[in-house]
Design goal:
The protein has 148 residues and is an alpha+beta fold. It is built from three helices and seven strands; from the N terminus they run E-H-E-E-H-H-E-E-E-E. The chain has a seven-stranded antiparallel β-sheet with strand order 1-2-3-5-6-7-4.
């Protein structure tokens, strides 16, 4: 198993701050599974206005972090020529459950798994944890498209 730091993730994904949410991808099993890490801080852009007196990471950004983790897993596992000049777009979210609020300061661990792939379409599932407590889970699909 291997891991990627934020700079290595930037070499795989087009996302940049503030929308690059994942800080690390670890426990990588090529094209199969990985754990994304989001360091949720009091000064994170999404916490400052959501909600100022009781900051919470928005659920939609947890889904985005799942997607970024899956895209990085896939890009890291594919041959570079297959992934070069491509983007990964979210196609759909079949199930998403938000079980507990994610509040700063914490490390949100996103355990993701590729369920199947068919050509450029991939399906994933994931669970999000803080200190071994499940915060959210989801099933989603994404596609790899040519960059315009």
């Amino acid at each position: 198993m291997s891991s990627l730091d934020k700079n290595q993730i930037k070499n795989l994904l087009p996302h940049r701050e503030p929308m690059l949410l994942i800080d690390e991808l670890c426990d990588i099993k090529k094209l199969t599974s990985a754990t994304g890490v989001v360091k949720v801080k009091k000064n994170s852009f999404f916490v400052q206005g959501h909600f100022p007196d009781q900051p919470v990471m928005p659920g939609v950004l947890i889904i985005e972090a799942f997607g970024q983790s899956a895209a990085a897993l896939t890009a890291d596992g594919l041959d570079k020529s297959t992934y070069e000049n491509k983007l990964v777009f979210l196609m759909g979210v079949e199930k998403a459950r938000f079980r507990n609020p994610v509040v700063p300061d914490c490390d949100l661990l996103l355990k993701i798994e590729a369920i199947r792939s068919h050509g450029r379409v991939w399906k994933y599932k994931g669970e999000a944890f803080v200190n071994d407590k499940k915060m959210a889970d989801a099933i989603w699909s994404a596609t790899i498209v040519d960059r315009k």
